[in-house]
Amino acid sequence: MDLYHRQWQGFPLGEQDYVIAADEKSGLQVLERRHLTVAPQPGQAGLLEFEYKRQGTIAYLAALDVFRAKVFGQVGDTTGIAPFGQLVDEVMQQEPYASARRVFWILDNGSSHHPHTSPTPLQAAYPNLVAVHLPTHASWLNQIEIYFSILQRKALTPMDMADREVVKVRILEFQEYYNQCAKPFNWKFGRDELNAWLKKLKSKNL
């Protein structure tokens, strides 16, 4: 999959081809600060209490249509094959994906969608789904990671929320806001840049 040139196996993607970048933000710690966070004021830095109480963890599973800048997501207690399958169902059972020619899913090698286990059941359920797994240790190439970074910086930092439900609402509200104003990422890291980077690493024996 060459997103820079919108190609698959050397051929251009068509109007009925879609690309979904998906992953999970797992083990997201919910922290309640001992004292309230104080926002920055003119001439005064913000104040963040260093002592906190752990309120458990949650997981956010999300899928990004990279050419339409639309995010689909679910917040739950954990990740796994079943929760990821629910995310796939949410996307693939609605238009334009249900009747698309092909829907490429960009995935890493996590246990929820491992290349040895996930492609067969996914493609059995949705014949137009094409699972594309990134190389090992290359999840940073997945555009959903950019969205996760934006979410973390804009909505979850600093982490100071009373319970897990508050964090769930915050995530889903940010997702809704993002879908109203986001534009596709101007992806500039193509195959040539990747090959040059790999060649550089090989020369350093990394």
Keywords:
single chain, 206 residues, alpha/beta, Nucleotidyltransferase, domain 5, 5-stranded mixed β-sheet, two-stranded antiparallel ribbon, 5 helices, 7 strands, 30% helix, 26% strand
What does this 3D model show about the protein?
It is a single chain. The protein is built from five helices and seven strands; from the N terminus they run E-E-E-E-E-H-E-H-E-H-H-H. It is of the alpha/beta class and 206 residues long. Strands 5-4-3-6-7 form a five-stranded mixed beta sheet, with helices on both faces. A two-stranded antiparallel sheet has the order 1-2. It is globular, with a radius of gyration of 19 Å. The mean pLDDT is 88.
